[in-house]
Every structure is written in C-alpha cells, then in structure tokens.
Design brief:
By secondary structure, the chain is of the alpha+beta class. It has one domain: archaeoglobus fulgidus dsm 4304 fold (2-Layer Sandwich), CATH 3.30.2170. Strands 3-2-1-4-5-8-7-6 form an eight-stranded mixed β-sheet, sandwiched between helices. It starts with a helix and ends with a helix.
C-alpha cells in the first residue's frame, strides 16, 4: 500500500500545476503510449474496480465513482468517490487529460487492493492507441481494460448473436486494437481493448465473466448508476 500511496501523491503533484496545452498534450500522449504493457502480470486478478465519470457542466466539475468487487464473484467490497475541477477542455482523442486526474484521485481513496480497473471507455482502440483506459493504467501502473459502448476507432465484422461471440477490431494498418464482444444474446456488442498490463484475450474473458445478464459488464454498469446518483447531489 505504501507504493500506491507514494504514487498517488506523486501524481497529485503532477496534476496540481497548469494543464498542458493541446499541442503539448498530444506530445505527452504519444510519449506515454510507448509505455503501455500488452502482457498480463503474474498476479491473479482477485479484485476489479469499475469506474465511471459524470460532468457537471455549469459547475465545471467532474464526479468520479469507483466500486471495487471481488473477482470473479463480483461481490462488492467498497465504493469511493471524488469531485474534481474541470481543468482540461473536451478535446476528441484527449479524454485522458480531462478525466484521468479524477480517476487517479478516486483510486487513491480505495482502502483495499485493486488488481484491475475496468473503464467505460477505450484503451488501444483509439486513433493514437492511447485511450482513457491506457492513460489511467499507465499512470497508475496497474492492469486496466476499456469496455466501451461505441466503437471509436477501427473496423470489425459484426459478431454472432450468441453471448460470447466476438470479432477482432483492426486499425488502419490491419493491426488488432480490440474486440467487439457480444455480452448478451441479441444485444449490441461492447468494445473491449487493452488499457495496460494485460492482453486482449484476458480483457475479453474478464469482460465476459463480469457480464451478468446485461449488455454492460457489472463493474462499469453499477459504477454508472452510482455516479448518476452522486451527480444529482453534487450538481443539483
């Protein structure tokens, strides 16, 4: 836990200064993208945190909620939340600079160990291979996966209609960047990609294991509901 606390403190210092310009953000993003680890670690995943963010537009605040579950049982262990000032504008493709700071701050509130983070967003399936799941995973140095409701980048064939069917998502150079996964029979697929310190096979298995009768896996589905209730209190 000491390593985690020190890391969170270092990142808090990093994000306490002036935010980068958009030009500088693109440069940082490219540099950080080289740090994504595309292989799983030796530690078994026994806890997983789902995270979601809501924006209070008028107040210029970001509300982040995170729920930690046992895995694969998905029994809730704890839930934490934070409110942060919006310091970086909405720029397509640079969502990490807007939202990663509040995710990192919320992660720091967890008392129990988190083995993996599941984010409602993209990882490698991003025009520059560095979506929010990568941004958070690399800066926190933890395994992370992105499970999004829409495809941001790449092409894919529609997977079969049965639960568990999947098709690879390929980028402009035909490289594999993710997978379109059917988590429930007859519903639209979700889009799974590596965030950090895992591989696509593991990311798909985890997303499928966490799907309990709904299209969206439980960690992010319940985090979304949690944040929606928090937003009512924070934003009015």
């Amino acid at each position: 836990m000491q390593h985690k606390n020190n890391l969170i403190e270092d990142l808090e210092v990093l994000y306490s200064g002036e935010p980068p310009s958009i030009k500088e953000a693109f440069r940082i993003q490219k540099e950080l993208s080289l740090k994504v680890v595309k292989t799983p670690g030796a530690r078994r995943v026994s806890t997983i945190a789902g995270v979601d963010i809501a924006i209070c537009v008028k107040e210029k605040k970001l509300v982040c909620g995170m729920i930690l579950f046992s895995y694969p049982e998905l029994e809730e262990i704890e839930r934490v939340w934070t409110v942060s000032d919006e310091v970086f504008p909405y720029v397509p493709g640079l969502l990490g600079f807007r939202e990663a700071p509040c995710v990192i701050r919320t992660f720091g509130e967890l008392r129990e160990r988190c083995d993996m983070i599941m984010i409602d967003g993209h990882g490698l399936a991003h025009p520059r291979g560095f979506g929010l799941a990568c941004h958070v995973g690399v800066l926190l140095d933890v395994p992370a996966i992105g499970v999004a409701k829409k495809c941001l980048y790449g092409g894919f064939s529609e997977p079969g209609l049965k639960k568990g069917e999947r098709e690879l998502i390929r980028g402009k150079d035909r490289e594999v960047v993710g997978a379109a996964l059917r988590t429930r029979e007859g519903v639209k697929p979700v889009f799974v990609s590596i965030g950090n310190r895992t591989d696509l096979y593991t990311a798909v298995v985890v997303a499928l294991e966490c799907s309990r009768g709904f299209r969206v896996p439980e960690p992010t589905r319940l985090a979304d509901k949690y944040v929606a209730s928090l937003k009512k209190d924070v934003c009015g």
